[in-house]
Design goal:
The protein has helices at residues 14-25, 37-49, 64-77, 104-132, 155-173, 202-213; strands at residues 5-8, 29-34, 54-58, 83-86, 135-140, 179-184, 224-226, 229-230. By secondary structure, it is an alpha/beta fold. Helix 1 (14-25) packs across helix 6 and helix 3 runs parallel beside helix 4. It is globular. Bound molecules: NADP nicotinamide-adenine-dinucleotide phosphate (NAP).
């Protein structure tokens, strides 16, 4: 056991579940959070059967109250957070819409979950990590949020992920030495979000996430990576 507490958002399926599994196998005490506690409990069953140290919690990153309640529970239960993987995210628009087909309310919805969700989590986690002098935060983003490769379509998802990239840089400037905050694109991965035609399997997708979550003390911070390789913003 590493004695380190890792919190994963959206850990009930997809990349979140696979990341939780891998970190638990590497000796982390993993808090698997999900919108529905029952989904987290269900996902945790095989990990518990494997003898892994996993815990479950209810957390909707789009809600101030839910994030507040989650951190109150976490503080009482563990008193620290060493790793935060801001994995939870959603594509709200369907079938690659053009900007003219996406109204402002959908833009706000995507921003509230995909950008403000990680921001809410970092707002709570960073002071704890700064006080400890240790922390690793991994924000899941996407090539679709990359300004240097920006294309048309899916404006809500794209802009929300660009927001996460900006927040990563801002928060990294506010982090104490020993706290590393990076943003990771997993590539196009075969999950419910990525669909069956995606080019990567889940193990390929999580490699870069796990790398950023377990960075050594001399690792980078405030950067954007895929498979541990730096990307242009
Ligand atoms: N798959 C890809 O190709 C790809 C590419 C680039 C980036 N990403 C990013 O990688 C991350 C994980 O994606 P994935 O492919 O594993 O997607 P997924 O299979 O669709 O899983 C998404 C997870 O996020 C959770 N979630 C959504 N909204 C939430 C909220 N408000 N509060 C808490 N949990 C919430 C979902 O919970 P429910 O089960 O309750 O819905 C689910 O657990 C996302 O941030 C995504 O944008 C994925």
């Amino acid at each position: 056991m590493t004695g380190k507490i890792a919190v994963i958002t959206g850990a009930n399926r997809g990349l979140g579940l696979a990341t939780a599994t891998e970190l638990a196998r590497r000796g982390y005490s993993v808090v698997m959070s999900a919108r529905q506690k029952s989904d987290a409990d269900q996902a945790a069953k095989p990990l518990l059967a494997e003898g892994l140290d996993v815990h479950t919690g209810e957390l909707d990153i789009s809600s101030d109250a839910s994030v507040e309640a989650f951190f109150a529970w976490l503080g009482e239960r563990f008193g620290r957070i060493d790793v935060l993987v801001n994995n939870a995210g959603e594509v709200f628009e369907r079938r690659d819409p053009r900007t003219s087909q996406v109204d402002a309310s959908l833009m706000l919805k995507a921003f509230n979950t995909n950008a403000l969700g990680p921001w809410r989590m970092m707002q709570k986690a960073l002071p704890m990590m700064n006080a400890q002098g240790f922390g690793r935060i991994v924000n899941l983003t996407s090539g679709m949020g990359q300004l240097s490769e920006m294309g048309g379509g899916n404006p809500a998802y794209r802009v929300s992920k660009t927001g996460v990239n900006a927040m990563t840089i801002i928060m990294a400037h506010e982090a104490a030495p020993g706290v590393k905050i990076n943003t990771v694109c997993p590539g196009w991965v075969r999950t419910e979000m990525g669909g069956p035609r995606a080019t990567r399997d889940i193990d390929e997708g999580i490699a870069g996430i796990v790398w950023a979550a377990t960075l050594e003390d001399d690792g980078p911070t405030g950067g954007f990576f895929r498979d541990g390789k730096r990307l242009d913003w």
